[in-house]
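Lecture 7 notes: from sequence to structure.
We start with the chain below.
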Amino acid sequence: MEPGIVWKNGMFTSPGNTPTEMIYYHDGSKGYLSGYVSILYCIDYCGSMGDCGFVIKGDGKVLWGSGIVKHHDAPVFFSIPLRGIHELRLITNSGGDNIDEDWGCWMELKVSKKTGKTDAVKVIKDDNILINGSFEEGGSVGSFKTLRQGDKIQGWTVTKATVDLNGTFLKAQDGKNSIDLNGTPGFGGIQQRFFTKKGKKYLLSFYLAGNPEGGPKIKKLLVSFGDQTRELEFDITGKSRENMGWEYHEFVFKAKQHATVLKFESNHKSGPTNWRTVTDNVKLVPYDKSKNNVVYHGNSSHSLYGLKYGRLAGGSYYFV
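Predicted structure tokens for the same chain:
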């Protein structure tokens, strides 16, 4: 599997010394249970010892077994007939050597009338490494919602003070939502952590504006990619909530570690603590100079709440 494949749904299990079981009750009618199994690759550990065995039992009988699935194996597909079955048990076993990093995943579980991979799963190619770059995931926030240090926006964490997740209050650049990095009130910030390849270059792009509801007229933003920073300013003169004057920015950064933290922070130190820099439509893609890195400016984020720092063997996967 190539990097950038997004699984829309899944279940994470950690068997340890005791197998884990998920039980599903069926009415015995004709149909198929299908999905994929694999091992989670965790950004915070980065080992390669994980292995699990996956088994499906129907009314106490073994219907399917994956064998041992190792850390770097591709996801394994299954499709199990359900006619006459009333109780299904999805069992994850440790691989048998030790329990380190035995993080078994069941993805895209689906009951349908037909069998086959095309019916079982649809995967989405997403070039954006970041989760929820346009801040759309999680439903409507109305006018705006204030989030405090430690709060989560899908894919992001508020790092200090407060931020405002804007809905109808400000006209977004992409979709319906944007982030004001000065909340109500406070000089705030957000961050997201993700996989990178040490020494590889990445292209970061985003849109910048300022909240026009109050001064100062020059809004200041600090962007950090690991220990590399950029400072930006935005002038709200002539702007309004409906005419935000969004400006496009992009930077090329080189990763220094296997995992990198991207931060967006209000770069103000004093003065009014509301109405400052606003950002939207944040994207991060591998930089390819030979292809001039044509950046897709739409909202391609399909990731949801869940293992935001996780990646499955053979590619990048995020799931509920």
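Points to note: The chain has a mean pLDDT of 79. Residues 117-120 form the longest helix (4 residues).
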